[in-house]
Design a protein that fits this description.
Elements: H1 12-21, E1 26-31, E2 34-39, E3 43-49, E4 52-57, E5 62-65, H2 69-73, E6 81-85, E7 88-91, E8 95-104, E9 107-114, E10 119-122, H3 127-145
InterPro entries: LytR-like, LytTR_DNA-bd_dom
Protein name: LytTR family transcriptional regulator
Organism: Spirosoma liriopis
């Protein structure tokens, strides 16, 4: 069951347009002996794996860097990137839906679906803050359309 929080996923052309309006710079990622610029708006989500971060991009590719998720979080635009769980940071531009799931009676659990098919759990402690961030993002998108 989808929550009534989202209208519909954003098209890729619209994502590009919003990225320009939000002034999302390229992200410089360190690799063995060199650095590489990656467009920030093409990052769908980041997944923490110990001292490494796995990037999932909109074209389906993945890249791993030797920086923690916490260090990467400080380099990302807080307007579109949120951390619903300690292991993941998601890009709200690629949010497909927010889903309530009942794991245990009287203890509903939220999860989010991304346009690439990934489903990410929202931690209970971060759920209310996450919903506020999603609503704020939705309002900002609507104000850009006006």
């Amino acid at each position: 069951m989808k929550a009534a929080l989202l209208q519909e996923p954003l098209s890729s052309a619209y994502v590009e347009q919003i990225a320009l309006q939000f002034d999302m710079p390229d992200l410089v990622l360190p690799f063995w002996g060199y650095r590489k610029k990656m467009p920030m708006h093409q990052i769908v989500r980041l997944e923490g794996e110990g001292n490494y971060t796995l990037f999932h991009f909109s074209d389906g590719s993945q890249l791993m860097v030797s920086l923690t998720l916490k260090k990467m979080e400080s380099r990302l635009s807080s307007k579109v990137f949120v951390r619903p769980h300690k292991k993941n940071i998601i890009n709200l531009l690629y949010l497909e839906g927010v889903y309530p799931e009942t794991v245990q009676p009287k203890r509903p659990q939220l999860s989010v679906g991304l346009v690439n098919g990934h489903r990410i759990e929202v931690s209970r402690r971060k759920a209310s803050q996450f919903i506020k961030q999603v609503k704020g993002f939705q309002e900002e998108i609507q104000s850009l359309n006006s």
